[in-house]
Amino acid sequence: MEVEARAHAKEGGAHRGATARRRRPVLRQPERWEFELLRLLSEQQGVPFDQLARFIGCESAQASRVVRHLFKSGFADYGRILHDEPHWAWLTNRGARLSGTGFASGRPRVGAMARMRAVNEVRLHIAQRAPEARWICGRSVIREQGRQGRRPNAVVEIGRERHAILVKHGIRQSEWRERDILESLMRGYDAVIAFCAEYPGNLYRRLADEHHWPKLIIRDIPQPPQSSRG
User: Fold this and answer.
1) Are residues 136 and 94 in the same domain?
2) What's the pLDDT tens digit per position in 37-57?
3) What is the pLDDT of residues 190-215, one digit of tens each?
4) Across the chain, what does the average pLDDT equal?
5) HEC secondary structure over the chain
6) Which of 54, 105, 181, 184 could pair covalently with 91 via S-S, beta carbons 3.0-4.6 A apart?
7) CB of 87 within 8 A of CB of 78?
8) Where residue 230 falls among pLDDT bands split at 50, 70, 90?
9) 31: alpha, beta or left, given left = phi > 0 and alpha = psi -120 to 50?
10) pLDDT-derived band at 6, boundaries 50, 70, 90
11) Integer Cα distance of 46 and 154 in angstroms
12) Final residue of a structural domain among 58, 93, 108
């Protein structure tokens, strides 16, 4: 996304805090590059500044200017939700309407932020490894399949194949329940790629060995570059 130069020119380059000297938004329709960012923020529900910089291919300071530009246009809001996290960006009601996704806006919930960051990291990882792949976000999966049943965190379409993406920080359910979820997803997709922390990764590897599941691919949750988080 080639957005940083445009935003810098419109922003004027002055750095301001997330809560200080905010102005009334200038109401207008988003430009094409802004629309792409609105869709990203809507699909992911929220993105911290360090990951946003990597999504759009710029430095963190430039990503901050981009978000402030979206705020001044009434499309997005931002703030530091946890003291040990960078600022996050999310859509306003107006930004959500103009994104074209049909998803509601909302400030990220504290309890969901670790999962959201991990899913963002997986999306960045897949975009780098397979730029031709199409990412279908979890919100789209819920809209298509409903809230009942077994749903992945996202779906990736690559060529004629559809891969279910799971992001597992921990195991909240019994082993047989996890097995049931995996078997259900493997029936519905060409592959299930599970990005796991240590404990769920060990459990999934054991289940894959015991049940001979060639469709299950287990990976570690990708880690961001050391210099990216502020």
Assistant:
1) no
2) 999 999 999 999 999 999 999
3) 999 999 999 999 999 999 999 999 99
4) 89
5) CCCHHHHHHHHCCCCCCCCCCCCCCCCCCCCHHHHHHHHHHHHHCCEEHHHHHHHHCCCHHHHHHHHHHHHHCCCEEEECCCCCCCCEEEECHHHHHHHCCCCCCCCCCHHHHHHHHHHHHHHHHHHHHCCCCEEEEHHHHHHHHCCCCCCCCEEEEECCEEEEEEEECCCCCCHHHHHHHHHHHHHHCCEEEEEECHHHHHHHHHHHHHHCCCCEEEEECCCCCCCCCC
6) 105
7) yes
8) low
9) beta
10) low
11) 15
12) 108
- The answer for residues whose C-beta is within 8 angstroms of residue 17's C-beta and 6 or more apart is none
Query: At which of 82, 108, 134 does a domain end?
Result: 108
Sequence-distant contacts of 142-145: CB under 8 A, at least 24 apart: 143/102
Could you give the angle at the alpha carbon of 37 between the alpha carbons of 150 and 93, nearest 5°? 75
The domain containing residue 44 runs over which residues? 4-108
Token digits for 180? 């049931």
pTM here? 0.86
Query: Has residue 227 been placed in a domain?
Result: no
Residue 52 CA to residue 61 CA, distance in Å, equals 11
Q: How far apart are CA 43 and CA 138, in angstroms?
A: 8
Examine the pLDDT at 228 and tell me if it is beyond 90: no
Residues ≥6 apart with Cβ < 8 Å to 103: 42, 43, 45, 96, 139
Pair 153, 139 in one domain: yes
